C-alpha cells in the first residue's frame, strides 16, 4: 500500500515543482521580451501574452489541485484519486498551447519556403493533436477514474497507427502525444533545411542563421523528446502517475521555447552590430555592397532584402537610418 501511495504522490510532487520552476523561467523570458522593445505586430504580441495568461491559469489550477491532494486531503485515498481540475489544466491547456505555437511555426515556414503542402501538413497535425488533447481531457472528466486513466483513454492518446487492409488505409486517430512529437520533428527538419539553404556566404549572416538553426533544433527536439517520454510512461506504467511529471512540463516548455526564439533576436542584433563595426574599411565595404546587391539577391531567389527568414529579416533601410552608413553584412532581427 505504501509503495502504491508513493507511485501516486511522488510524481505529483515532482510535477508541481517543475511546473512552478518553468513558470518562473517563463516570467523571466516575458520580462526580457518587453525590455528588448521588439517592434512585433499585434498577432505576435497577442500570442505571447495569450500564452502567458494560459500558463498562469494552468499554474493556478495545478496549485489548487496540489493543495487539495497533498494538504487538505492528506491521508484520504479518495482525495488522492480525485481528478479535481487536472482534466482541464493538463491535456486541454497543453493542447491549446502546443497547437498555437506549432501553427505559428507553420506560418513562419510558409514565409521561408512558400510551400503550401508543408504548411498545411504541419497545421493539420497541430490542430488534430490539439483536438485529441481536448478529447483526452473530456474523457478524463467523464470517467473520473484516475487509476484507470490509461485504459479508459487509450484510444485518444496513443501513437497514430496506419493499417493497410485490402487497399484501404484505416486510421485510428490516437494522436495527442504522438502527433505532438511528429509535428515538432517535422518543424525542426523543415526549419533546418530552409535556413541552411538561406546561407549567403557572408560571415555575420551565416553566423546568425546557424544560431537560429541551433535554437530551433534544441527547443523543438526538447519538446518532442518530452512528449515521447510522456507517451511512453503513459502506455507502459498503468495505475500510477509517472506520466504526470513530463505532462506538467510540456506546456511550459513550449511557451518557454517560443519566447527563447523571439528573445534570441536581441543577442543576434548585437552580434550583427559588432560585425558591422569590424567590417568598416571602404574598399571592403564596396565589394560587400556589390555582393549584397547582386549575389545575395540571387541566393535568396524570391526574397527581397526586407523579407523574413524564419525569425529574421534583412532590413537594410533600418540599418541605414540608424547608423547613416550602408549595411555591411548586417542581418537585423525582426519578426
Describe what you observe in this structure.
75% of the residues lie in helices and 4% in strands. It has 335 residues and is mainly alpha-helical. It has a two-stranded antiparallel sheet with strand order 1-2. β3 and β4 form a beta hairpin. α1 (2-36) runs antiparallel to α2, α4 (86-113) packs antiparallel against α5 (116-143) and α8 runs antiparallel to α9. It is elongated and about 65 Å long. The relative contact order is 0.12. The model is unreliable at 155-173, 274-310 and 312-335 (pLDDT under 50).
Quick overview:
By secondary structure, the protein is mainly alpha-helical. The protein has twelve helices and four strands, in the order αααααααββααααββα.
Q: Can you give the helix content as a percent range?
A: over 70%
Structural class by secondary-structure content: mainly alpha
Number of helices: 12
Main sheet properties? 2 strands, antiparallel
Strand percentage lies at under 5%
Distance between the termini: 55 Å
**Regions with little confidence, pLDDT below 50 for 5+ residues:** 155-173, 274-310, 312-335
Computed Rg: 23 Å
Overall morphology: elongated
Query: How many individual β-strands?
Result: 4
- Strand order within the widest beta sheet: 1-2
Average pLDDT for all residues: 76
Give the H and E element order: HHHHHHHEEHHHHEEH
